[in-house]
Design goal:
five-stranded mixed beta barrel; single chain; 7 helices; alpha+beta; de novo design (two linked rop proteins); OB fold (Dihydrolipoamide Acetyltransferase, E2P); 253 residues; 2 domains
């Protein structure tokens, strides 16, 4: 059967050089989930190839026309262009660091090439909000994204909306179970106090602009990002450690 042509949006996750002029690009597509594409001739210095490699930077959001064949592991791109042209993410160092963290986290969670339009829309919306965010929102954005991304992979903490401030002070969040409680578990994978309190605050955030109201210092954020890395490692098989996290900690400091 010949490969069929399809239109889809995509978010670039990773690009690897292939041969003299080509690349293999891992893209999270709206229509087919995560897919690998061979793209020929984008690394040439000719007029035709010039600048096209820029479209395959991690976090780039593209409109694509793709050849798709279910039986193939490597697909091909026919046409590609920006679906959203960032104003800041590709040039602003702190925002780029946040975007690369988001891309790596998403890549580690996407194990199968299954379409998930809701997840795609969440990620597309998140990258646009990050691009448009002020510094106060941007600083809390990795925590917000990491916590709300769990919703699509089955371990989002329940949102205890009716908890009073006094009760919040006594809450424990069990990272293994993904549950809040008032009793400490018999293992070390839990958070309490300020970290549990801020987790509840982040769960209540509906729009990224609200992140401006959550006041945290740099050291707390750094420690908290490590906590969320641990949370993911407990729930996503072969998660490992995040390469972008040390860079992000430095940049946000």
């Amino acid at each position: 059967m010949p490969d069929k042509l399809h239109k889809t949006k995509g978010i670039v996750l990773r690009t690897v050089k292939y041969g003299e002029t080509s690349v293999i690009v891992l893209i999270f597509t709206e229509k087919f989930g995560v897919q690998s594409y061979l793209v020929n001739g984008v690394r040439t210095s000719t007029k035709k190839g010039s600048g096209k490699a820029n479209l395959f930077q991690p976090a780039a959001m593209l409109d694509l026309i793709v050849y798709h064949n279910e039986s193939k592991n490597l697909q091909r791109l026919k046409e590609f262009k920006w679906s959203y042209l960032y104003h800041h993410i590709l040039s602003d160092v702190p925002k780029n660091a946040v975007a690369l963290f988001m891309v790596e986290l998403l890549t580690k969670c996407l194990k199968q090439p299954e379409a998930n339009a809701d997840l795609f829309n969440f990620c597309e919306d998140a990258f646009i909000h990050l691009d448009e965010s002020n510094n106060a929102v941007m600083a809390n954005f990795p925590l917000f994204f990491a916590l709300h991304l769990t919703n699509f992979f089955g371990f989002k903490p329940p949102n205890p909306l009716k908890v009073t401030f006094e009760e919040t002070n006594n809450l424990i969040f069990d990272l293994r179970e993904g549950q809040f409680s008032y009793t400490k578990p018999d293992h070390p994978d839990f958070i309490e106090g300020k970290q549990a309190e801020v987790t509840i605050e982040l769960l209540k955030v509906m729009q990224p602009s609200e992140l401006e109201d959550i006041k945290l210092n740099h050291d707390f954020r750094r420690q908290f990002l490590h906590t969320y890395e641990t949370y993911y490692a407990l729930h996503i098989e072969d998660f490992g450690t995040m390469k972008t996290l040390p860079v992000l900690r430095e940049v946000l400091g």
